[in-house]
Write a structure and sequence with these properties.
There is one protein chain. This protein has one domain (about 20-95). Helix content is about 55%, strand content about 0%. It is built from four helices and no strands. It has helices spanning about 25-35, 45-60, 65-75, 80-95. α1 crosses α4 (about 80-95), α2 (about 45-60) crosses α4 and α3 (about 65-75) packs antiparallel against α4 (about 80-95). The longest helix is centred in the C-terminal third of the chain and has 19 residues, at about 80-95.
């Protein structure tokens, strides 16, 4: 979204990110970064199930790990960077099986 965030939305919290590496990401890839940023606070599945689901989306071509890694690798959130590194390792390990 370009411009000022909407106001008067009650309890809705609007967050903006200034990471230009996200510009070429697909909506699902951005959602992945946000899920990793807040992991495990808002997760409804355990880590192993999360990895399986992401692996499926990668195999289907819905998520591209290289651009996600590029965008997330320089993110200011240490939580996001840590979980992204772990996710990539786990997905690649699953591909080797």
């Amino acid at each position: 979204m370009v411009g000022a965030p909407p106001s008067g939305l009650g309890n809705v919290r609007i967050v903006s990110r200034k990471n230009l590496a996200r510009i070429d990401l697909r909506p699902l890839e951005i959602a992945l970064l946000e899920a990793l940023r807040s992991w495990p606070t808002f997760s409804e599945v355990d880590w192993d199930e999360f990895v399986r689901r992401i692996e499926g989306l990668v195999n289907e071509g819905e998520i591209r790990l290289a651009p996600v890694l590029k965008a997330g690798g320089n993110d200011p959130s240490r939580n996001l960077r840590t979980h992204l590194g772990r996710l990539v390792e786990d997905v690649e390990r699953a591909d080797d099986r």
